[in-house]
Amino acid sequence: MHGVGARTGIEFESQSKAYQLLAELGLPTSDRFKVCSTRAEVKKFIEFYEEHRHDVEHEIDGVVIKLDSISEQERLGFTSRAPKWAIAFKYPPEEVTTKLLDIKVSIGRTGRVTPFAFMEPVKVAGSTVTNATLHNAEEIVRKGVLIGDVVVIRKAGDVIPEVLGPVIERRTGNEKAFVMPTKCPECGSTLRAMSEGDVDIRCPNTQKCPAQLRERIYYIGSRAALDIDVLGYEAAVALLEAKIIVDESDLFDLTPEKLSTSEFFTKKDGTAGANVAKLIKALEEAKTRPLWRTIVALSIRHVGPTAAQALSNHFASIEKIAQATAQELADIDGVGATIAQSIVEWFDLDWHRQIIKKWANAGVTVVAQEITQLPQTLAGLTFVVTGGLESFTRDGISETIAAHGGKASSSVSKKTDYVLAGSDPGSKLAKAVELGVPVIDEASFKQLLQG
Asked: CB 3.0 to 4.6 Å from 29: which of 1, 69, 72, 217, for a disulfide?
């Protein structure tokens, strides 16, 4: 228990006394707080936990300073997204050093080649890290890292490992520069930039490259696409290695009999594992997902949830999207010329059309489903969402906005009507303030929904 919200029949003089009473009632409360009477005491408390941040039973990234008096809390009240009587002091991300053993590359679902640092294991911000992305060849040059360097790493936002740069004074002379490979490490195809000025290079063997196949099938099962239980990375690998599927077109033709040929889906005695029934059921459920999720699952380059929803709303079927010209696609708000060209190129390939055909025959949604018309209380309004929300997932809030007639955009501009700010909002909030775009919290958004 870290705070007190709505209450009936009981009042507290202060937050600290509330903690004391709740503990006496047997509720779990944190004892890692202190009532401070001076600024110096607050500073000392902050400094103590900065030094001992990894001694706490869970990872922390800072300390929250609150007014203890409940009456003073109530007098100060709240902003649109946070209490005025509390403020967080964030510690700088922990930085550690380790040796960069090698720079390897990974191949993504659209063929993008991403170099990453392979390092001696080191603990940072509560977990052991061995890998960190280096994005592209230009970023490696900018950071100035060499294979064999001692490098400084941290977790961006205490979450994502990143290499900051080398410790120059610890170089021995045996370090060597990274050379981007010219051949795909998975299929041997010649790597190349797919468009003029592209800083990324890609594997052009989209149909047969094992890495791209694995990543695409894994992505189909993710929450960003069709949200298929069991279909994680290991399952994707198992399906391909056992040749149960050739590519994603076979995914919705799976049967318990086909799955039984893989050890991943069987018990030691050879009978079907519990994951077989779960996967078959999840695949059936995935067939009913809305059209825009099917579009996302196709892994068309540049087409994410926002563009997919725009395409679904405008065309209402994959067949009509496939028949559209680049100009017709580009004219749709939320699509544009780059995405339009990518869509046209995707549908130009026969094997891509075979995916659509086989999925349609299996019952996957390829035509927008008729849904009960909800009150269009957000008609004509454009929203940008930043930060975490309590009542909505990232995709769920976009669906809610669209279902009520609004538009969910990924970037803030003068055309944005509202920025919906949740917990830990990013740079979009600052952009909204800069442009004078109204910022609302989740409660205000729900009021707009109700009209």
From this structure: 1
